[in-house]
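so ive been stuck on this for like two days lol. basically i have the seq below and the ligand is pyridoxal-5'-phosphate, smiles is in there too. i just want the complex predicted, nothing fancy, no docking runs or whatever. if the output looks off dont worry ill sanity check it later, just need somthing to start from for the group meeting slides
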Amino acid sequence: MIPYGRQDIINDDIDAVIEVLKSDFITQGPQVPLFESAIKSAVNVKYACALNSATSGLHVACLALGVGKGDLVWTSPVTFVASANCALYCGAEIDFVDIDPKTYNLCPMALEEKLSDAKRKNLPLPKVVIPVHLCGQSCEMDKIHALSIEYGFAIIEDASHAIGGKYQNSPIGNCQYSDITVFSFHPVKIVTTGEGGAVTTNNEAIAKKINLYRTHGITRDEKLMKNSSQGGWYYEQIALGLNYRMTDIQAALGVSQMSRLNDFILKRNKLAERYDASLNNLPLVIPHQIEDSFSSRHLYVIRLKLDKISLSHKEVFNKLRENGIGVNLHYIPVHLHPYYRDLGFTKGQFPISETYYRDAISIPLFSSMTTNQQDEVINILTSILKNSS
Ligand SMILES: *Cc1c(COP(=O)(O)O)cnc(C)c1O
């Protein structure tokens, strides 16, 4: 089976991890700040905090912005559940803004409409909006940022797909149009640490809070303590934090992987362009790229033109899997999951997202994919669609 995504590990990565295993530190040690420095310089931001996952990153990002009971957070329905769950962890309420039919990202026009509608009806406005850079293509951050000033909400970018990508020629994660950006280093993402995540910000107060929440709310910094130190052993818990630390084993892998970030992005973009050229004449829609975006190309999503073929969405999906093409679907709209239905969300609430779900398929794309593997995907997909149109 050719997977839809897979890690790209070479001997240098393996050696870096072995070095750590032989060293004094295997949990958070010297590799973690090295990894954070690599992220800071790659995305051109002041502060980076490595964590054990992007899910943790989204949680501490919400905590650092003071999200709590009585607050409202908005995100896109077409995302991994973690983008929405983070609000619920904090006791806040979640709602969604439908996607743009071309980019599949949170639609700034739909956002504006929902905001002005809420204002007019005296309904609560969001405290935080979480745009998700689906497949690695940035949301239209300048527009979302302008709305954040008008309506007074904070912005967390869920850039789990997007490290190495750019928006308006600047690296995603520099927080030019947001308060906080979150990255994931799960093995299918661009760069991996096995499990892992990171949060970036230019705001010192937010960075300090996130560092505190990462490790139980405990500080050894005397300037932050309520009382004076009672001895060399002394530390204080000054907030209710968590254990969201990354290990040095993971961070060493991350440092090694980050040195290949540009290469990963180049390879993914070449493969995506090759798909664009080869699939263009089939009854499907290839990914639309906005002018301001340079995508990391985490995922390659095709939309089937179901009115032009005799097979159903599920039949095409199953035929691809039967033929060894490890396709997937990103994502089941979050509001349609049973847990979210129980919160009161219903089918039909976000129609553009639901239409997307009825015809989207993620086909294999990963940096170590060979031309032969890609040709196999193209040939099998072409024959399935040609025979049914
Ligand atoms: C992968 C992913 C996450 C969660 O990342 P983890 O590191 O696995 O916690 C969150 N949001 C999006 C959009 C993702 O793709």
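DSSP finds 13 helices and 15 strands in the chain. The pocket of pyridoxal-5'-phosphate is lined by residues 53-55, 79-80, 82-83, 132, 158, 160-161, 184, 186, 197 (CB under 6 Å).
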